[in-house]
Design a protein that fits this description.
By secondary structure, this protein is an alpha+beta fold. It has one domain (about 20-145): Glutaredoxin (3-Layer(aba) Sandwich), CATH 3.40.30. The radius of gyration is 15 Å and the shape is globular. Helices cover about 40% and strands about 10% of the residues. The chain starts with 10 loop residues before the first helix and ends in a 9-residue tail after the last helix.
């Protein structure tokens, strides 16, 4: 029996098989796409996978974790079955990166109400300041293997 190709796999199957942290992000947001490139740069071990919130995988994970499936206002980290959003997601990612970024971990002690308020301020203005794409861009070939849904045709 032939093994299904990557393009034949549905989002539910891909999500069921995830075995590493996945970062969901607003795929049309230039700031969010920049954050993904930043994480890839400082994640030499390749611990994180990525999926735009607008993708089938992003939508499937959002539904499973009772998150919004439109009007995205946060990056989402799904790690060991737990969901982290906003500043908590960003700081949890930073603690696992190479370089100086784990030094930001003590910021987790800042009350979430304060750190999320700062996050929300940036999120509310991200399109105006950083711009946005009309559609989720296809990642560069060297990044494609880091995306949970690797079909980009």
């Amino acid at each position: 029996m032939a093994t299904p190709s990557e393009s034949d796999r549905d989002a539910a199957t891909i999500v069921d098989e995830l075995d590493q942290p996945i970062l969901l992000f607003d795929g049309v947001c230039n700031l969010c796409n920049g954050f993904v490139r930043f994480v890839v740069q400082f994640d030499a071990a390749g611990e994180f996978l990525f999926a735009p919130l607008q993708s089938d995988v992003g939508q499937e994970l959002s539904r499973r974790h009772n998150l919004k499936t439109e009007d995205f206002d946060s990056v989402v980290l799904v790690e060991d079955g737990e969901v982290y959003t906003k500043s908590t997601a960003v700081l949890r990612v930073c603690r696992r990166l190479d370089g100086p970024w784990p030094l930001l971990t003590p910021l987790s002690a800042v009350p979430t109400g304060i750190s999320d308020s700062v996050y929300d301020l940036v999120a509310e203005n991200r399109y105006r300041v950083f711009g946005k794409k009309d559609a989720c861009p296809v990642p560069e070939p060297e990044l494609r293997e880091r995306f949970a849904n690797r079909t980009f045709d």
